[in-house]
Amino acid sequence: MGFKTVLFFLETVGITALYASSYFLPDTLNFSVYGAYLLIYFVLQTVTSGWNDENMRRIEAPPPVLIEDEKKEFSVVSLEEPRVVLLVIGHRENPEYWKKCLSSVFRLKTSNLRKVYILIDGDTPEDLFMYSIAHLKIREEQPEGFPPVSIIMAEKRGKRGMLYMGFEKARDEFFKEQQDMLVAVTDSDTELKDDCLLQLEKCIEADPRNGCCTGLLTIYNLEDGILPKLINARYRYAFAIERACLSYFGCMTCCSGPLSMFRLKALTETVMKRFITQTIGGVPCEPGDDRHLTNLVMQQGYLSRQTSYAMAATEAPETLVRFLLQQLRWSRSFYREIRWQIGSLEKQSLFLGFSTVYESVFPWFILVWVIYLLYGLHPVSVYIKAILLSIGILSIRTLIMLCRFRDLNIAYNILYYPVYFIFLLPTKIFGGLTFLNNTWVTQTRDTNTWRCSNDALFYFGFLALWQVMLVTGFAWTTYRLID
Question: Is the pTM of the predicted complex or chain greater than 0.70?
Answer without folding.
Answer: yes
